[in-house]
Write a structure and sequence with these properties.
single chain; 198 residues; 6 helices; two-stranded antiparallel sheet
């Protein structure tokens, strides 16, 4: 009976750790749309970046992503990254989720990293942050990881850097979306960045 209580206690602690270190990105916003009720068009990136609001896209999938990121299409280093982002664009946030019905920030980053780069990352954003070669923001390249702390001192959110300050991540309110590190909300909680150690 005692060992059963110990196992249950360990299970509860592990579950609490997962919940507390996944995605704490509850952004206060005046915009109240949810990714569940958006009409998601494939090839059209969703973004809450201040410099992208109201932008309309008419090109092909890669051209649209390049336009949002402020680069030429040929400057998108890993085209497969953008095709996969597009497949997941608008997928709602779901704590512990790992499929199109819902995904959390670390699950999304883990899935993309495995499929695009063939690298297995730790499951939580905090563990990912402990296993990177740190970089300054000005050194970031496409595919690097960016980390935030919305709930206090510990890392509790992760995204993948793209270009020109933009990164893809899973917002608790908007789902998979592209945001800008320089927007006031994200810059306030940005903690570190870098490349996963091999």
């Amino acid at each position: 009976m005692n060992s059963m209580k110990i196992r249950y206690s360990i299970f509860v602690m592990l579950l609490a750790a997962l919940v507390l270190t996944s995605c704490g990105a509850k952004r206060k916003t005046t915009s109240s749309y949810s990714s569940r009720n958006l009409n998601i068009k494939k090839g059209v990136p969703l973004s809450d970046a201040s410099d992208a609001r109201g932008k309309e896209y008419a090109g092909n999938k890669l051209d649209n992503y390049a336009e949002l990121l402020g680069v030429k299409t040929k400057e998108l280093d890993n085209k497969n990254l953008y095709y996969l982002i597009d497949e997941w664009m608008g997928t709602p946030h779901r704590m512990g989720g790992m499929d199109r019905r819902g995904v959390d920030c670390s699950g999304f980053v883990s899935l993309l990293y495995n499929k695009v780069y063939g690298v297995d990352l730790p499951r939580t954003s905090r563990d990912m942050a402990d296993n990177i070669k740190r970089k300054y923001e000005r050194q970031l390249k496409e595919g690097d990881l960016v980390f935030f702390s919305f709930g206090g001192r510990n890392i509790d959110h992760v995204g993948i850097y793209l270009h020109n300050g933009k990164f893809v991540h899973v917002s608790t309110r908007k789902g998979v979306i592209i945001s800008n590190l320089h927007d006031s909300w994200y810059s306030k909680y940005f903690k570190r960045s870098g490349t996963p150690k091999s």
